[in-house]
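Continuing the batch. This is chain 6 of the set; chains 1 through 5 are on the previous pages. Same settings as before, nothing changed between runs. Recording input and output for traceability.
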Amino acid sequence: MQTKIDELTYQLLEKNDQLSAAKARAWIELLWSDFESSYARAGYDYKGATVTEMVIKKWIESYGAQLHEFASTNEKYKHLLETDDFLH
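Output for chain 6:
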């Protein structure tokens, strides 16, 4: 799964030059976990990492360039993305 996270992080960095590598990775990890937990809470059967990866790729294409703007307006993510230090 780390390889998929790395690939998605690189795709996000290509789409959004406002994010550092650490913040882009944090976004991918947050999106990944949020999607899987939301999917499970909704009662859907787990479809695997391939489906999660496909959804995140669509989100990157649609929203990747503006993701840095969303963080400053959403308290759920703001504290996690204010610094790069939490990844070290």
